[in-house]
């Protein structure tokens, strides 16, 4: 736009003088204030059909965001975790991760793009001059802020452009569902699996080091032996999950040293079997004091007395170690006579 296209009243000198914003150069202010350039109206400001087209574009972007969010949830539910696809030039990648990234990125991008297009084409873009003033919450300031807010709300045309308002609210309402769905990755619902382990009646006690079933003669007085349930192999996919609940420590005491009546009944010739998982935060117990029959958790020093029902005698653990009832089968091997009667490891809210 040339200076000939600007009306006289819109010239910087004239308009600035009217607004009191233009200052000529002098000794104190060597740089002259040129004032504001003339405001140029956008096509949407003068053509309602163009404004309607922009409104539809913004609504389309918000609608795409909603559809992308729905696609994100659908992909999360339906695509298997182990499915891989080939995407050039990335190669073979996880189909689930690719779908989640693409849909969530689209949902967020289209909300932002819609907001930017709305602001650039439909919201007011008139330049405003506001003199600096002291920062204080005077009644006049509060009144001005309130008036500016109302004017901004009016200029945004949020009340007038109902299609934009409806689709924007829909997009903003659906996007948080992506985060809610992702909460599922905190873990699957445990159900009752925290209450049960692989131990059951007839399961042999297998030495963790030799992978051989244990006989009473294999357990010496004062020794500490670690065992696992028969059939649980280290190469199996569920090994870590199951051993975290079923890990067992076996100690042989003199029967007369056992103080707890139930512990004695559940033992075999002084051989007692207790959960290896500490009842504080689930650390594996591995330290045994032969003379006192105490076992010590190395993480936070919770101490349990294996001669007295594995009760807690020191440390932050909240309850004794669960005991496994054992016996000997017809072949002379140590076997479980059932599962633990209470959940192993740290207490949880369902414990009862």
UniProtKB/TrEMBL annotation:
Belongs to the Rieske iron-sulfur protein family. This is Cytochrome bc1 complex Rieske iron-sulfur subunit. Residues 240-335 form the Rieske domain. One of its GO terms (molecular function) is 2 iron, 2 sulfur cluster binding. It comes from Streptomyces echinoruber. Its cofactor is [2Fe-2S] cluster. Pfam families: QcrA_N, Rieske. Residues 1-49 are annotated as: Disordered. Keywords: 2Fe-2S, Cell membrane, Disulfide bond, Electron transport, Iron, Iron-sulfur, Membrane, Metal-binding, Oxidoreductase, Respiratory chain, Transmembrane, Transmembrane helix, Transport.
């Amino acid at each position: 736009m040339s200076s000939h296209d600007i009306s006289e009243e819109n010239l910087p000198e004239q308009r600035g003088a009217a607004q009191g914003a233009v200052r000529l150069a002098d000794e104190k202010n060597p740089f002259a204030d040129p004032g504001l350039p003339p405001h140029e109206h956008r096509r949407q400001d003068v053509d309602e059909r163009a404004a309607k087209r922009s409104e539809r574009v913004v609504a389309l972007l918000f609608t795409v965001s909603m559809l992308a969010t729905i696609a994100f949830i659908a992909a999360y539910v339906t695509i298997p975790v182990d499915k891989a696809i080939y995407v050039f030039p990335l190669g073979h990648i996880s189909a689930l991760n690719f779908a989640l990234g693409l849909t969530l990125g689209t949902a967020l991008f289209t909300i932002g793009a819609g907001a930017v297009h709305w602001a650039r084409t439909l919201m007011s873009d008139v330049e405003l001059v506001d003199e600096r003033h002291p920062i204080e919450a005077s009644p006049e300031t509060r009144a001005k802020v309130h008036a500016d807010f109302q004017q901004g709300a009016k200029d945004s045309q949020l009340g007038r452009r109902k299609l934009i308002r409806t689709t924007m609210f829909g997009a903003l309402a659906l996007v948080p569902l992506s985060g809610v769905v992702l909460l599922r990755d905190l873990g699957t619902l445990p159900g009752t699996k925290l209450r049960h382990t692989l131990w059951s009646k007839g399961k042999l006690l297998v030495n963790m080091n030799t992978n051989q079933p244990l006989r009473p003669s294999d357990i010496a007085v004062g020794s500490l032996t670690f065992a696992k349930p028969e059939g649980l192999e280290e190469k199996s996919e569920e090994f870590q999950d199951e051993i975290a609940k079923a890990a067992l420590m076996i100690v042989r005491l003199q029967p007369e040293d056992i103080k707890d009546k139930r512990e004695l009944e559940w033992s075999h010739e002084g051989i007692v079997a207790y959960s290896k998982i500490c009842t504080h935060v689930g650390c594996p117990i591995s330290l045994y004091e032969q003379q006192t029959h105490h076992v010590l958790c190395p993480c936070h020093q919770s101490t349990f007395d294996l001669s007295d029902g594995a009760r807690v005698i020191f440390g932050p653990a909240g309850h004794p170690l669960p005991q496994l009832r054992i016996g000997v089968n017809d072949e002379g091997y140590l076997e479980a006579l059932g599962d633990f009667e209470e959940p192993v490891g740290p207490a949880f809210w369902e414990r009862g």
